Amino acid sequence: MASYLLELGTEEIPARFQSDIRNEFLQRMKRSLEEADIEYGGLSVDITPRRVALFISEIALRQRVREELVTGPPARIAFDAHGEPTPAALGFARTQGVDISQTFKLETEKGPYLAVKKTVGGEPVSRILASVCPAVISALPFPKRMRWGDGEFSFVRPLRWIVSLLDDAVLSFTVGKVAAGNISRGHRVHGAPQIVIPRADQYFAVMERESGVCLSAEKRKRAIVDKGNCLAESVKGAVIWKEGLLDEVVGLVEHPHTIMGNIDETFLELPREVMLTSMEAHQKSFGIEGCDGKLSPYFLTVLNISPKDEALVRIGWERVLRARLEDARFFWKTDLQTSLDDWLARLDSVIFLAGLGSMGDKTRRLEKLCAWIAAKTGFDIPEDAMRAGRLSKADLVSGMVGEFDTLQGIMGGIYAARKGESLYVADALREQYLPAGPESPLPATLLGAILSVADKADTLAGCFGLNMIPTGAADPFALRRCALGIIRIMVEYAFQFDVEELFAKAQSLYGDAQWKIPVGDALGRLMEFYTLRAKNFLVSKGFETLLVEAACGKECRNIWLTNIRIGALSAFARTPDFNRSVLTFKRAANIIRKQGAEAGAALSGRYDKTLLQEPAEAALADKLEEIGPVFDALWEKHDFTSLFALLGALRPSVDAFFENVMVMCEEPELRFNRLNLLQALVSKLCLLADFNALQV
User: Fold this and answer.
1) Which tens digits make up the pLDDT trace of 677-686?
2) Where is pLDDT greater, at 321 or 64?
3) Residue 179: its H or E element
4) DSSP string for residues in 542-555
5) For the whole model, what pTM was predicted?
6) Residues 180, 134: Cα–Cα separation, whole Å
7) Which of 65, 255, 397, 623 is the most exposed place for a label (fewest CB within 10 A)?
8) CB 163 within 8 A of CB 5
9) Matching CATH number, 567-693, of 1.10.730.10, 3.40.50.1220, 1.20.1070.10, 3.40.50.300
10) What is d(CA 317, CA 192) in angstroms, rounded to the nearest whole number?
11) Architecture of the domain whose range is 2-62+124-210
């Protein structure tokens, strides 16, 4: 067994690409080794800004050898009347790389066939790797690729060196214009400019000794956190670690060195969100808070060098951050001196989307839509709902949001509170963009949820009216995220109004907008889009796809109710009688679906008891009348578990009906009455699930 090392040296790889590159490299090499039938012990990939290092331990020096049985033409075709091999047999042997004498007749179920046993594999791993590695490297996917110099090869960043060692032997190959060798490079400041790697299994020890580089992202992260926590404790504080920023910083450094800087205490008058955004967005630094939860006048940052004069470097970072905070303080004071009415007036000059008016128009629509949703959800301060809608985009013209666009909404809430608006309104403005994704938190307040739903519904209605509908590859206006946000909020807050009414109301508030597709068509396509998102949401919660289809049917206009109903249906599906119940109720639904159109008149579910001749049909009618009030009462309470249990009690009567009653009898009046009896049953069933969608 041997060890193999493959290191790709590059210019700095963006931190946001590194995780995907590591995973792709790992998976593609695993797949290639498995396809080549190469045995190995372990495979790992480490990545830093300037290198990707793949290491394979205990790799076999030769491909696994195995024996294969290959069948050729039938014996009657392979041999002539004298038993001599025909051209077909000779061609088969030649194709398999054997002499005709090595073939034999193999008895099969279809008769005798010409066959040969071949030994395959056994190729030197060095030869296979020299072919596999450049293919894997060249095929790695990147969000953006680069070409450099006069070459045609493209990569995430310019490729500078390749180390390829099988034990102590260089496996030669070329990628682009870079030939593989055994020479790596260290950190630009702390490492040797050239590092000879004598053997693959000595790579990590040599790099630790000579390169000044920490190869492991996990070790870099641990070093940053440990040193940062220690520095924060020295000033009786705690670092405000943000996982996404921490991962980004880990991807920016090969030689992490954590330092703490000071902030002028006068800047602490700025809102916490502004302070942290100034540190995080521009300086990739972390804030520190005291035991009281308030920001401390310190920040933490991570260097890619260990400076000779740390104090001088710290002063430089403090100076840069101070300049950022001075800008923020200027915007803060200027914004506080501007009235909300001034901002609202300026919104009329800010375009929402071409064809959908200005941001001022949008806020006037949201003002009305928030009031409509508030009435539907029981929010009892309609004035606050309307005010939240009108002020929702005011901060977009503020200086602070112009500088830090990630603070939109957040600053709106802060400014609204400072300018005397209701706390309900201020909180709603802060939360209006939540949730920002499938794992993002939801608004914490009812008015925040109302404003968020209104904002997303307005955007969806407008974009679908202009035929800006997402495709499989593109969703430039994040409409899938809008729909999912509405779904999550309606489920969490138990919003029970019809979502189609919501979208229709949002459409109507656009007034005489010049739509590119008819209003009815746009609404229909929007509902199809929303229903698909709702089904995906339910599947993501762990419900089986068929149960989701059965619970949703063609639409799920009340997603809160659908979510409860599918939970009960899922529990019902685990009961012993589920399959029998499904078959019974599917039969009833199929009869109505197939024969109802030919009944001669529309089926109403109203039947004449005097025409119920058979005991089984009279018993079914009695059972339906018995459970009807119970069904209605349970439906009002949304007790779907009890409703599905009620179906179990109903099934024997339905089974007896099908066993003893001819539905499609000769007498038209009797046939129509029996179809209406089934219609009365099916009208109850379809409220609970589309049983035709289930397969048992």
Assistant:
1) 888 888 888 8
2) 321
3) strand 178-181
4) T--HHHHHHHHTT-
5) 0.81
6) 10
7) 65
8) yes
9) 1.10.730.10
10) 28
11) 2-Layer Sandwich (3.30)
